[in-house]
Structures are given as structure tokens and as C-alpha cells.
């Protein structure tokens, strides 16, 4: 069983939502790197970062899928690679959250330079495992309609990221950091499980384990 056929369009959206950004983690992350900017400048930087992220995700997905074919990389092998990267990054994120509670972070340096729009776009929005997910979905989109739908879902998630960046300050002011931190913890644990599920899918595709493991059988 291959990853593409396991996912309906709603599941594809959830996968992209979790791996690109995700939008509910972006406000705090974006505010941290733009706290020294005026609100208008921060919004302009968000728009430029969005443009870079959208171009990188759509172009990267198409180029990556083409290179997969040229290099004869199978879908199961790419699925396994995506799962490994996703697992390592997810685990590091969860451990970093734990370490932050044990060792309070140092106050940010107000003189620290603000990252460029491209550095915000990659990897804050276009994560390595998010790009791997896009490449896999594009590679398995044998019909033009399916490929365009995947592209539309990528655009939708990036628009949510844009809103999260442009309105990061109001979001943090009205919602506060605690709900967002709670969400980060929940998603961090779930993404570890999702990464393991992707790894299992790759192993099934390679014929190393039985498909019943994926289906819960």
C-alpha cells in the first residue's frame, strides 16, 4: 500500500497543514524573529516570505518528482526517506520543548539581525519533510486533475501561513502563548506517530512488512 493511495484529499490537506509550517506554530516563531521590526515592515516581510515559500514548494515539488523519475527512486524508497527525516525533526522538536522547560531560554538579543524573507520561507514554512511530502504527492498524481488539486491545497496552506505571519502580533496578544505552546506539544507528539506511520508505509511498499500493520490488522 502506497502513501498516496492511503490519503483522501482531506487527509492530504492535514498532512500538508502539519508539515508546512504549520500555521498554528508560525505566529510565535515569526514573532520571535521579527520582534524588532515595525508592524508594517513585519507584514511586508511576511508577504515576501510567503511568495518565496509558495514558489519553492510548487517548483520544488515538480522538480523533485521529475528527479525521482530520472534517478529511478521508487515511491516506497522516497516514502521511507521522508519518514526518517520527519521522525528525526519531530523528535528533536519534542525534545527541544522539554529542554526549554528544564532550561529557560536566554532573552532574545534585540540587536540580532532579522532573517531574510528566503530564510523565513525555508525552512520555517517549507520544511524538509514538508517538501518530501509534496514531492511524493506530485509523483503519485498521475492525473492532471489530482496534481492541480494537490497544488491548490499547498496554496491554501501557504495562505494560512501568510495570515499567521501578518497577524502574528494580534494573535499572540489575544490568544496568548499558552494555547499555542499546548498545540505545539500535542502536534509534536502526533507528528512523531505520523512519521512512524510514513516509515511503516515505506517498509510496506518495499515488501519488508505486511500491509496489515498499516491497516491496524
UniProtKB/TrEMBL annotation:
<dbReference type="Pfam" id="PF01914">
    <property type="entry name" value="MarC"/>
</dbReference>
<comment type="similarity">
    <text>Belongs to the UPF0056 (MarC) family.</text>
</comment>
<feature type="transmembrane region" description="Helical">
    <location>
        <begin position="116"/>
        <end position="138"/>
    </location>
</feature>
<keyword id="KW-0812">Transmembrane</keyword>
<feature type="transmembrane region" description="Helical">
    <location>
        <begin position="180"/>
        <end position="209"/>
    </location>
</feature>
<keyword id="KW-1003">Cell membrane</keyword>
<keyword id="KW-0472">Membrane</keyword>
<feature type="transmembrane region" description="Helical">
    <location>
        <begin position="73"/>
        <end position="95"/>
    </location>
</feature>
<dbReference type="InterPro" id="IPR002771">
    <property type="entry name" value="Multi_antbiot-R_MarC"/>
</dbReference>
<feature type="transmembrane region" description="Helical">
    <location>
        <begin position="12"/>
        <end position="33"/>
    </location>
</feature>
<keyword id="KW-1133">Transmembrane helix</keyword>
<protein>
    <recommendedName>
        <fullName>UPF0056 membrane protein</fullName>
    </recommendedName>
</protein>
<feature type="transmembrane region" description="Helical">
    <location>
        <begin position="150"/>
        <end position="168"/>
    </location>
</feature>
<feature type="transmembrane region" description="Helical">
    <location>
        <begin position="45"/>
        <end position="67"/>
    </location>
</feature>
Amino acid at each position: 500500500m502506497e502513501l498516496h493511495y492511503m490519503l483522501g484529499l482531506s487527509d492530504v490537506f492535514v498532512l500538508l497543514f502539519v508539515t508546512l509550517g504549520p500555521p498554528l506554530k508560525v505566529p510565535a516563531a515569526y514573532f520571535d524573529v521579527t520582534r524588532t521590526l515595525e508592524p508594517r515592515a513585519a507584514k511586508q516581510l511576511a508577504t515576501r516570505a510567503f511568495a518565496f515559500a509558495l514558489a519553492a514548494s510548487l517548483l520544488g515539488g515538480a522538480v523533485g518528482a521529475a528527479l525521482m523519475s530520472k534517478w529511478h527512486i521508487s515511491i516506497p524508497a522516497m516514502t521511507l526517506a521522508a519518514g526518517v527525516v520527519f521522525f528525526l525533526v519531530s523528535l528533536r522538536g519534542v525534545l527541544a520543548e522539554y529542554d526549554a522547560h528544564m532550561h529557560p531560554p536566554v532573552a532574545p538579543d534585540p540587536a540580532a539581525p532579522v532573517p531574510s524573507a528566503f530564510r523565513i520561507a525555508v525552512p520555517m514554512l517549507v520544511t524538509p519533510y514538508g517538501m518530501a511530502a509534496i514531492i511524493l504527492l506530485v509523483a503519485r498524481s498521475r492525473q492532471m486533475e489530482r496534481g492541480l488539486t494537490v497544488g491548490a491545497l499547498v496554496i491554501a496552506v501557504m495562505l494560512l501561513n501568510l495570515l499567521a505571519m501578518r497577524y502574528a502580533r494580534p494573535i499572540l496578544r489575544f490568544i496568548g502563548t499558552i494555547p499555542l505552546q499546548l498545540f505545539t506539544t500535542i502536534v509534536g507528539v502526533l507528528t512523531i506517530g505520523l512519521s512512524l506511520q510514513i516509515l511503516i508505509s515505506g517498509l510496506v511498499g518495499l515488501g519488508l512488512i505486511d500491509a496489515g500493520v498499516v491497516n491496524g490488522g
